[in-house]
Write a structure and sequence with these properties.
The complex is a heterodimer of chains A (about 230) and B (about 120). Helix content of chain A is about 40%, strand content about 5%. The longest helix of chain A is centred in the first third of the chain and has 54 residues. Chain B is an alpha+beta fold and about 120 residues long. Chain B is built from four helices and three strands, in the order αβαβααβ. The longest helix of chain B is centred in the first third of the chain and has 13 residues. Classes of the chains: A mainly alpha (about 230), B alpha+beta (about 120).
Amino acid sequence: MKSSRKLFKPVLLFSLLTLFGFAATTVVSVAESAAADKAKTKEAAPKKAEKGADASKLDPNDPANVIYLDTSGKPAGMGGDATKPASAAYKAGQGWHPQAISGAGLPKDKYGLVDWAKLVRENLIKPKPSLDPDEEEMPPLQMDILIEAKGDFVNDVIYPHEMHTYWLKCEVCHPQIFNPAKGTNNITMMGIVQGQWCGRCHGKVAFPLADCNKCHSSPKKAAKTK
Amino acid sequence: MTRLLAALFLLMFAAPVFAVDGPGNIRLDSKVSSMKKAGLGPVTYPHKLHEKLYKCDACHPKIFKDKHGDNDINMKQNMNQKFCGSPSCHNSDKAFPLYMCDKCHEVIKKGAAKK
């Protein structure tokens, strides 16, 4: 057993070194993969910049080239920016051509989207009601509908007929999208996001759903919350 | 000398204690009764996924308190730019928006509960 006691020191040393070696290799491999990721994105960025430079022999400010540009003003078909996650709301908000937006001087809301309600309220635009000059315009219907949010916390929605009937006639929504009887439409947020109910227009031809509180404006009565 | 080596040996096992390893998936279900009314289930928050994108002080403690149960989150707060809906997070172009319910919530099939 004396021999085993003699072995003790070197065994201890060896095991220490092995453990240290494992630790070192893990650290190195983590550092390597982190560096590799950095290197990859650095490589990707200059490549994309090069591509962009080549393609913009197309001058985006030349009005004749509008047809070649996508909705964010870059030459179409050149690919997006892979280093940034683009949210759906951001993409939807970029849906109008930047030249048209800045040229028209339309007011914007805090998400950078055109504030159509402000336009209507302040009479900033005067659209013709019909292509037929003799047709009489129906005045907007002034009727606010309270749509209660199903959860306990989220504010209720006040649906303003006036803002919508300024643009649309009754038959656009009634009865095929909304049944004109209170309590008969089981509206859910999931459904709206999937393109039913309000989502038939909002997110497609009307402003997207980015600003929650734009619709969810009426706080629940204090008794219900908490 | 041997004692020193032995002490070092033991210390190698103590080292992992100091490694900062965030929590795994956090289940957010304190408001489940309200969620069910809207047809949704509880949220499973992937902490590891966010760890890869941000450092700890990006969120702690200015947006979320560190301790489990210290943050009273509900959807209205998110919509009012608190917690998950902070202005540089899921209420901005840096991440997907708040109206994509099924990205966070489990979905209860068979439609929403009747009011």
